[in-house]
Design brief:
This protein has 357 residues and is α+β, with helices and mostly antiparallel strands. Among the domains are: 66 residues, no CATH class; 103 residues, GMP Synthetase, Chain A, domain 3 (2-Layer Sandwich); 45 residues, SH3 type barrels (Roll), CATH 2.30.30.140. It contains 8 helices and 17 strands. The strands form 5 sheets. The protein has a 5-stranded antiparallel sheet with strand order 2-1-4-3-5, with no helix packed on it. Strand 11 and strand 12 form a beta hairpin. Helix 1 crosses helix 2 and helix 2 runs antiparallel to helix 8. It is elongated and about 80 Å long.
């Protein structure tokens, strides 16, 4: 068995797992960890627990320590610098006339590097912007392009239900959502009804998906005669959230009866179960491709002098890739289709230098 602990670095962000290394941790603790980007501070959302060794995806990095008062004061001191950096970045974006929306800025633990997140539907040449930011802030600069979902996750807001957005409430809630989920839940295929603030399908569509899929596999089809403790009835509909069948009884009344209390042809419609427990069905794979996933494009400026040298040498302009087109692959800038050459085949010349008809 191996011990792991789940840590997030942003509100509603992805959960990363580390080796607690015998450090006593609880949910909500701030911890200092070593990542590929350097030393960072995050929040524990999944307390330490053991899993089989074969389930470990890769060797885990260890938790350095629980964050102390000095660490928390350092993070709090970055708030003023962050606001100043965002103001400077917005001014430079306007100065360079770039079609991009600045969403967030994150200062690495310990300072020295700042990451700007921006949203844009197009590819952006931000070489000159990075150079000016590095000169103005005297820090390493990283630009990261994000998609509509992550933009909404960072900014937050209230959903049509009146609660805070699911993507900000539930850590790691980043599973893909497809239109098939709305179809199977008999929801109106009206974009105004099933789209969230980000303009994509609402995250909450996937919360009851497993229940709908498994219920339909067990429930008898419409028109089937079933026996209940209230007499015989005919299935005319379903109440999946209630785990019930809508029946028209012999006396003409319509009632919702739990599927666990119904028998079909003398056999229980759901044998051996008094209550329904949602289960994940292995063959429940969405037919439609997942919607946009946030695949960041990054550019790091080590120092203003290095950036000036690149400009003098006439280096190729770095561009931010557009977000994923939905199939897990980032957008490409190549004009060729299918990776094949579109060279036109020449016609053979006719005698006398005239082209054939």
């Amino acid at each position: 068995m191996a011990d792991i602990v789940g840590v997030v670095f942003q509100k509603g962000g992805r959960v990363y797992y580390f080796d607690p290394d015998s450090v006593e941790l609880a949910r909500g603790d701030q911890v200092v960890v070593q990542t590929m980007r350097g030393t960072e501070i995050g929040e524990v959302v999944d307390p330490p627990h053991g899993i089989p060794d074969e389930e470990l995806p890769a060797p885990l990095k260890r938790v350095v320590r629980r964050a102390n008062d000095k660490d928390l004061e350092l993070v709090a001191s970055h708030a003023g610098l962050r606001e100043q950096a965002m103001t400077t970045c917005r001014e430079l974006i306007v100065k360079h006339g770039l079609d991009m929306k600045l969403v967030d800025a994150e200062i690495m633990f310990g300072g020295g590097k700042i990451t700007f997140s921006f949203y844009s539907e197009e590819r952006i040449d931000f070489r000159a912007l990075v150079a000016d930011l590095a000169k103005a802030l005297k820090m390493r600069i990283e630009l990261r392009q994000i998609g509509a979902r992550e933009e909404t996750r960072v900014l937050g807001g209230l959903g049509p239900c009146g609660r805070h957005l699911c993507c900000t409430l539930f850590q790691g809630d980043q599973e893909p959502v497809s239109i098939r989920m709305a179809k199977e839940q008999n929801l109106p295929l009206n974009p105004m009804k099933i789209s969230g603030l980000c303009g994509r399908l609402m995250c909450c569509l996937k919360y009851e998906q497993d229940q709908y899929v498994c219920f339909r596999k067990e429930a008898p089809s419409r028109g089937t005669r079933v026996q209940t403790d209230r007499g015989e009835g005919v299935v005319v509909g379903y109440q999946v959230p209630k785990d019930s069948l809508t029946l028209r009884l012999e006396d003409g009344t319509v009632a919702d009866v739990p599927i666990g209390r119904c028998t079909c042809g003398g056999e229980p419609c759901r044998p051996g179960e008094a209550e329904f427990v949602p289960a994940v069905c292995a063959d429940d794979e969405p037919d439609e491709p997942a919607f946009e996933e946030d695949l960041p494009a990054e550019l790091v400026a080590e120092a203003p002098a290095d950036m000036d040298a690149d400009l003098d040498r006439g280096a190729a302009p770095p561009v931010a890739e557009a977000p994923s087109n939905g199939n897990g692959a980032p957008g490409k800038s190549s004009g060729r289709r299918g990776g094949r050459s579109r060279r036109r085949r020449r016609r053979p010349r006719q005698s006398g230098g005239e082209s054939g008809s």
